[in-house]
Every structure is written in C-alpha cells, then in structure tokens.
Design a protein that fits this description.
CATH architecture of the largest domain: 3-Layer(aba) Sandwich
Shape: globular
Oligomer: single chain
Number of helices: 15
Helix content: 40-55%
Number of domains: 2
CATH topology of the largest domain: Rossmann fold
Number of strands: 12
Radius of gyration: 21 Å
CATH class of the largest domain: Alpha Beta
Largest sheet: 7 strands, mixed
Length: 421
C-alpha cells in the first residue's frame, strides 16, 4: 500500500514538461517556440463498445496523442494497460519526439493506449477491441501520417490485426501503417531484439568512456519482459555477470551470477523469476539497489525517485524503459557521479528498427538481420557520441545533453517550416 501511495503523485506529463523546460531554458528558446513544443499538437480520446464473449457490451476508453509533426509523421506505440491515462500517453508521445530527433530519424512523436487489462480478455475479445479501437483512431493514422507500433502488453499479433483493419478499409494491403508486425506481413528482422540490442550498444560505448571492463562488471536488470530479458542475455554475451533480475512479481539475486537462459526457462515454466534455484528472492525495489556496476531499469516509469536514488550503487545506469527516473532522482544521481544513459537515447533502438521496417514496407523490400543490426549500431553509436560530446562541452548529465540535441533539432525544423497560415 505504502509504495502505491508514494508513487501515485508523480505525474509523467509533469516530468516530461519539466525535462523539456530545462532544455528550453539552456537553449534559450523564444517563448513562442517553447509554447508550441511544450504541448501536444493533438490529443484524441475515444470511447468505444466491444461485444464480450458472455453477450454483454463493454465500453472501453482509448487515446492517441500526436506531440509534434515537425520532422515527419508521428511514431509511437500503443499500450494496453489498466493504468493508462491521458497524461501518461502525452508524456510518452513527447518522449517519442525527442527520441526520434536524438537518433536523427525523420519522425515526430506519437503514442496511444487503451485502459484495459488484456490478461482478462479472451483472444476473440482482444481482437475485437483492437480492431474497433484502430477503426476509431483511423482518422489520425496512416503510413504518411502516424505509424503505431507495439508497446506494453501489445505484440506483433495485435499489429497484424491493426494492419488488416486499416487495409480492409483502404481496399488494399497497407503494410506501412504499423510497425512491429510479424515477419510474414512485412515485419523487420531484428525488431524484437532492437530495444535491448540498442541498450547494450550504448552500454558498450559508455563502458569504454568510463573505463569499465565489461567482462569484469556486474549487472542488475529490473524488468524481465522483452527488453529486460534480451538485454540480460546480450550483456551476458559481452562477458558481464548478471547478479539480479526482477519481473512484476518480484526479483532474484545471486552475487556469483545468474545463468540467464535458465532464468528465462524458469520464468516460462513458473510465470515468475522468483524461486529460481540458487538465488535469493528480493523485491523489485531492492533490485535497483543491489551491489553492481551497471543497472538496467527495463520496467515501468518512476522507479528511481528521490527516495531511492541515493541508495543506487551502480556507476552506470542504462534506461531500457521509458521514464524510469524522476527529475529529482536525476539530480541526486548526477551529484553522486553516476553516469546515466537516458531513455530517449538508450532505448531508441525500437523506434529505429521500426523506421527500418517502415522504409522496407514502403519500398516493398526486406533486409537481412545482419543489415538491420549493422545500420542500428551505426545510428546508435553516432547518437551516443554526439550526446556525450554535448555533455562534456556543456558540463551536464547525459539526459540534459540528449534533450539539448533533440529539442534543438525539433525547434530548428519548426522554425524553418514557419507557422501556417
């Protein structure tokens, strides 16, 4: 109960605006530009009915937000979660704008969500909800306008239903309307691993900068879903020892290291990482504070706050999740000489490979996984180095540097385009 009450007051939209304000101030943006970039361009709320299996009709609420379209069509995932709120979706849309700008891909930021616990729905109900929701937001989406993707509790099957819904209305197949699709429907190789792979590319660069030897380093991963479990596997491949992981049920720790493939197998069989042989059960919060060199928060927002930031022992923090650290926590970590790879840089691999998928779809082309990973590595390494150069020049933390880079790029595009009419 206490934790729940303690985390409730943190509003992700207030956090996102606060992060933007800091960058706008440093960049000296004029008031007009600040006013434009501080708010989303469009917020769309829909209430839509779905036939349930028991014959009843339930009305669900969903959102699609487009934050900025200055550099290209809106891009961003759709999440299904019982705690989705308009403020969360607005924050995530704004973060997508900066994320696309940091890595230099020609998109603006968007995000969507439906208030639902998908675990309570049958497959048929899930498909009906997906198709109806996509029909409702269809006025906004399109391969040149707004391209959704998977997010929390959505996957390639849900993207396939969305693409099919749009295509049925268009009268022909439009693979480029969503990304994160199955390979057989125009999905990209390497998309599933992209967020985690990019996180590890960034960690490798940061470790080189900090003089951390990866084969001697110990890593903790909070969140053991798609991003977290793959990041744990890839960092293990780099020679690091993973000493703690957690999922929504809790965490496990072993100072001598966990064998990730066995933990993944255990979670598949038992539905939780807890109880893993040879490891100690710990709480999700404790995973953040274990003795390690590298911490990968790969769960939900607002995990590192002013309450626990001072207890973090890791020297390097790599945000595989969106918004896991609050601005107050950022200040504490910076004061304690912690090196943070911010979400808008660290987990931009997902949207970068989504961009590759979109390009392949528009060209009716298909690239090999080697090509995808090589292009991803090139883009991520460049973005990391550009951000690091700004951090060193401005004597600031990496989040501020990433924001300075991203906000400047978006502001320049907006200024160049001017105001219509």
């Amino acid at each position: 109960m206490t934790t729940e009450h303690a985390t409730t007051p943190i509003n992700p939209w207030a956090v996102a605006q606060q992060q933007f304000d800091l960058a706008a101030e440093r960049l000296g943006l004029d008031d007009g530009m600040r006013a434009v970039l501080r708010e989303p361009r469009r917020e769309f709320t829909v209430h839509f009915p779905v036939h349930m299996d028991d014959g009843s009709v339930r009305v669900f609420t969903g959102y699609r937000v487009q934050h900025n379209l200055g550099r290209g069509p809106a891009k961003g995932g759709i999440r299904y979660h019982q705690d989705v709120s308009i403020d969360e979706v607005k924050a995530l849309a704004m973060w997508m704008t900066w994320k696309c700008a940091v890595v230099g891909i020609p998109y603006g930021g968007g995000k969507g969500g439906v208030i639902v616990d998908p675990k309570q729905l049958s497959m048929r109900e899930l498909e009906s909800l997906t198709r109806r929701f996509f029909t409702e937001i269809e006025v906004l989406v399109g391969p040149e306008k707004d391209i959704p993707a998977p997010d929390v509790n959505t996957n390639s099957q849900i993207m396939a239903w969305m693409m099919d819904t749009y295509s049925m209305h268009a009268g022909y197949t439009v693979p480029g309307v969503v990304t994160g699709k199955p390979i057989s429907l125009g999905g990209s190789e390497g998309r599933n691993e992209a967020t985690a792979r990019c996180t590890v590319y960034c960690i490798v660069e940061a470790a080189r900068h900090l003089g951390i030897e990866l084969p001697k380093s110990r890593v903790a991963v909070q969140g053991f879903g798609n991003a977290g479990s793959i990041a744990a596997t890839l960092i293990e491949d780099e020679g690091a020892t993973v000493v703690a992981v957690s999922d929504s049920t809790g965490g496990i720790a072993n100072p001598d290291g966990l064998e990730i493939s066995k933990v993944i197998k255990w979670k598949k069989e038992h539905g939780t990482v807890q109880g893993f042989p040879g490891a100690t059960d710990i709480s999700n919060a404790e995973v953040l504070e274990v003795d390690c060199d590298i911490l990968i928060p790969a769960a939900l927002e607002n995990q590192i706050t002013e309450r626990n930031a001072g207890n973090i022992k890791a020297r390097l923090i790599a945000e595989a999740a969106n918004g896991p650290t609050t601005p107050e926590a950022d200040r504490i970590l910076w004061k304690n000489s912690k090196f943070m790879i911010p979400d808008i840089l660290c987990n931009a691999g997902g949207v970068t490979v989504s961009y590759f998928e979109w390009v392949q779809d528009l060209n009716r082309d298909h690239w090999s996984e080697e090509v995808v990973n090589a292009k991803l590595k090139e883009i991520m390494t460049k973005a990391f180095r550009e951000t690091l150069a700004i951090a060193r020049r401005e004597q600031c933390d990496m989040r501020t540097a990433a924001y300075l880079l991203a906000v400047r790029r978006v502001a320049d595009a907006m200024a160049m385009r001017g105001l219509y009419p």
